[in-house]
């Protein structure tokens, strides 16, 4: 078909036509809202580089959960700021650690909320790396057992799903085996299969106080220049038993989301990370862009690229707009 027989504008004439042929839709069900939990009582601290996002004490979680559920956001992912850190991240699997306490509180006060936990050591190590160190390098195999212990402690506290974000090789099978040996066969693993060594994590590292104290994460997170390697990483995690694959960050890596969508049939999640959120907020505060419209267009682009699930700090803001339509 060519012009003048074919006129694409015919189907753009009014909003009913546009809605009729719309290919991609955002739904709050498929958003995952990240929560930062800190020690203390009765406090909410706004994160300076992430306006509208707060660190919460455990007693604030019931209210937060209620707000999410009312907006149709049924899933959260938890990040913890422990009381103290050490060389091997013991706080990550402490029985009454910050995350374990938060999971119990949420499951107690809002049992229908899906509680996902980030499994990583960087928030719990004094050196800020995602694993334990041997001779000043992050030791892959020594870290696996600690990660599996952490995932198990989350499952025992009542988490619905665990999400390892450390990028150690072999951690999905180690976590799967440990969960299964302890009767947690039904807890799925949402693996950060493709996670890049990205500068877009800057605000998160302020929020969770987890910047590496020396060096960087390039020896375990992926090189932003690589896409074939993403397929190898994803294949490994699928073979090790991952249930959902995450690509992170999202917008700068939409090609990777689209490639994974084509190559794999597991559900795919994209993490719209802190820096991606912060840029939109900052430009919007300056009046340079329409923040709400850019938010929606951005989230749509992630969906259109092929993500089923979007992990985003915009979850509540976008859900509010969807609810009021
Ligand atoms: C690691 C982790 C990070 C993020 C999620 N999990 C930080 C990192 O790898 O340095 C970043 C999320 C974001 O930027 O929003 N536990």
Question: How would you characterize the overall build of this protein?
Answer:
There is one protein chain. It contains 11 helices and 12 strands. The protein has helices at residues 15-20, 61-70, 98-109, 140-157, 171-181, 202-207, 228-240, 254-263, 274-285, 291-305, 315-324, and strands at residues 31-38, 44-46, 54-57, 75-80, 114-119, 133-134, 137-138, 161-164, 190-195, 244-248, 268-272, 309-312. The chain is globular, with a radius of gyration of 20 Å. The longest helix has 18 residues, at 140-157. 38% of the residues lie in helices and 17% in strands. It has 325 residues and is of the alpha/beta class. The two termini are 36 Å apart. The structure holds ligand PBG. Ligand PBG is lined by residues 118, 120, 122, 165, 201, 204-205, 217, 273-274.
Topology record:
Blueprint: H1 15-20, E1 31-38, E2 44-46, E3 54-57, H2 61-70, E4 75-80, H3 98-109, E5 114-119, E6 133-134, E7 137-138, H4 140-157, E8 161-164, H5 171-181, E9 190-195, H6 202-207, H7 228-240, E10 244-248, H8 254-263, E11 268-272, H9 274-285, H10 291-305, E12 309-312, H11 315-324
Parallel strand pairs: 1-3, 1-4, 1-12, 4-5, 5-8, 9-10, 10-11, 11-12
Antiparallel strand pairs: 2-3, 6-7
Bound molecules: ligand PBG.
Q: Based on DSSP secondary structure assignment, what is the total number of beta strands? A: 12
Determine Rg (CA atoms, Å).
20 Å
> What string, H for helix and E for strand, traces the elements in order?
HEEEHEHEEEHEHEHHEHEHHEH
The CATH superfamily turns out to be: Aldolase class I
CATH architecture: Alpha-Beta Barrel
Overall pLDDT level: 97
Share of helical residues: 25-40%
The biggest beta sheet reads: 10 strands, mixed
- Number of helical segments with 4 or more residues: 11
General shape: globular
Tell me the distance between the termini. Answer: 36 Å
CATH topology: TIM Barrel
Bound heterogens, unique:
ligand PBG
Low-confidence stretches: none
In what range is the share of β-strand residues?
Answer: 15-25%
What is the CATH C level class, in words? Alpha Beta
| Count of the domains | 1
Structural class: alpha/beta
């Amino acid at each position: 078909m060519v012009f003048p027989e074919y006129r694409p504008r015919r189907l753009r004439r009014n909003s009913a036509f546009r809605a009729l042929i719309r290919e991609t839709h955002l739904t709050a069900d498929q958003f995952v809202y990240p929560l930062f939990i800190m020690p203390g009582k009765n406090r909410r601290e706004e994160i300076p580089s992430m306006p509208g996002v707060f660190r919460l004490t455990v007693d604030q979680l019931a209210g937060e959960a209620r707000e999410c559920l009312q907006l149709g956001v049924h899933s959260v992912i938890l990040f913890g700021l422990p009381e103290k850190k050490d060389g091997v991240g013991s706080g990550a699997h402490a029985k009454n650690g910050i995350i374990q306490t938060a999971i119990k509180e949420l499951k107690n006060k809002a049992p229908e909320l899906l509680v996902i936990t980030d499994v990583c050591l960087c928030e719990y190590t004094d050196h800020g790396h995602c694993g334990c160190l041997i001779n000043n390098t992050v030791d892959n195999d020594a870290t696996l057992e600690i990660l599996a212990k952490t995932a198990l402690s989350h499952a025992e506290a009542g988490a619905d799903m665990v999400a390892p974000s450390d990028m150690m090789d072999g951690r999905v099978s180690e976590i799967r085996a440990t969960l299964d040996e302890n009767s947690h066969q039904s807890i799925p693993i949402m693996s950060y299969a493709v996670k890049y060594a990205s500068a877009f994590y800057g605000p998160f590292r302020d929020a969770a106080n987890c910047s590496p104290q020396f060096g960087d994460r390039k020896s375990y997170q992926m090189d932003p220049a690589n896409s074939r390697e993403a397929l190898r990483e994803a294949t490994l995690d699928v073979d090790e038993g991952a249930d959902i694959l995450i690509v992170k960050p999202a917008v700068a890596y939409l090609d990777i989301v689209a490639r994974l969508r084509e190559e794999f049939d597991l559900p795919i999640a994209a993490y719209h990370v802190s820096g991606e959120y912060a840029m939109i907020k900052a430009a919007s505060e300056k009046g340079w862009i329409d923040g709400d419209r850019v938010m929606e267009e951005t989230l749509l682009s992630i969906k259109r690229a092929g993500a089923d699930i979007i992990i985003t700090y915009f979850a509540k803001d976008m859900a509010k707009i969807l609810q009021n339509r």
